[in-house]
Each structure stands twice: as C-alpha cells, then as structure tokens.
Amino acid sequence: MKAIRLSLSLAGVLTLSQCAMPVSMPYFFSSRQEVVRRPLLVQPAQASSPPLFVWHGTGTPGVTSVNIDLSEQKAYIFKNSQNVGWSYVATGRSGYATPTGTFRIMEKQVDKRSNRYGSIVSSNGNVLRSNATAGVHHVPGGRFLGAKMPYWMRLTGYGIGMHAGPIPNPGSPASHGCIRLPYDLAQTLYQHAPVGTRVTIMR
Q1: 129 and 137 in contact (C-beta within 8 Å)?
Q2: Closest CA to 168 of 160, 180, 156
Q3: pTM metric for this prediction
Q4: What pLDDT, in 10s, does the model give residues 12-69?
C-alpha cells in the first residue's frame, strides 16, 4: 500500500512539473521585454581573436535604434528592440567629452570632413602639421584640411555625430567627442539608420 501511495505521489509531482513548465516558459521568454542593452552572444565561440563588430541585422525588418555605452566603448544596435549587432566605438578622450542623453540623427552625409579638426597641408598635399585645430594652428604656406568623417550621422547642432574612423585601442576613448565606428559597420549602419533614428548615449 505504501508503495502504491509513493508511486501516486511521484506521478503527481511529475504532472505538476510538466504542467508548470508551459505556463512559466512563455512569460520567461516573452518578447515583450522593452529594453535589451546587450546581446547574449558577442562573438562566435570559434573566433581566434575578438572582432571589432558583429552584425546580423540585414534581413531583419523594423525600426533601428542605437545604444552607446561609454564605459564599455561599445555600441549596441537594435531593430524593434531585438539586438542585431554590436561594435566597439571610440568616443571622446579626456578633455573632449562625448555628451550623454537621447539624441536623434539629424543629418547624414556619405563624404564629410571636419571643419574643426584635421591637418595643415602644403599646396601639393604634404602634411605640415597633423592633429591641427582650425583657427588655432598655422603653418606658413599651409592650409587647413579637415579630417575625413565618412558616413557622417549628426547627433547635435554643435558637431557631435557617429562616423567611420580609427579605433586604435578597442575599449578606450580616442576621439574629439564624436563616436567613431569601424568603417564597414559605419557604412552598414548608415544604410539602416535613417534621419530620426534614436541614439542613446550612457555612461
């Protein structure tokens, strides 16, 4: 009799466990999560070295948004709150802070040059002074040439935006305040982020 009771109790426990699973799983895996800042998988397990970016959003429909984490020096890209990629970025180094807050892409240009930072070059294009600031640095016989900022996506009225540029030390700031992206990722994001796209920058 005890054996029969024990079998019935175990059967009851198994029945409850099996019934509970379908109820809890849909809630746990619900797609209604509003804010997902980071992807679960940042790189393929077989990768020999960390990539600068991962993108898998080309065939994914929906509204694009971008979250930039200054402490990680990474951007996380979403479509309809679904993570579709991430990238290392290079934001403002000491003395050139990148602003935080929520912004919208205001303007886009495939070919853009800075009107403030660049180099002083001679008439035949030789660099006379690199890392020059317009109106501050002068070299006799030289002219200012702004730094290239391909795939420019403006975020502020005072010259902060996202664009392709060097990321010399992934994970470390390096810019004059803009958000630099790897060239290929900047080109891709430019295609998927129209004017009006929301960009959130956080510390």
Answers
A1: yes
A2: 180
A3: 0.74
A4: 433 333 333 333 333 333 333 334 344 434 444 444 567 999 999 999 999 999 999 9
Q: What is the 3-state secondary structure (H, E, C) of the chain?
A: CHHHHHHHHHHHHHHHHHHHHHHHHHHHCCCCCCCCCCCCCCCCCCCCCCCCEEECCCCCCCCEEEEEECCCCEEEEEECCEEEEEEECECECCCCCCCCEEEECCEEECCCEEEEEEEEECCCCCEEEEEEECCCCCCCCCEEEEEECCCEEECCCCCCEEEECCCCCCCCCCECCCEEECHHHHHHHHHHCCCCCEEEEEC
- Calculate mean pLDDT across residues 177-185: 97
Separation of alpha carbons 51 and 42, rounded Å: 9
* 90 DSSP β-pair partners: 180
Q: State the virtual CA torsion across 71, 111, 154, 93 in degrees, nearest 10.
A: 30
* pLDDT at site 20: 32
Residue partners of 131: CB distance under 8 A and separation at least 6? 117, 119
Across 122-127, average pLDDT: 92
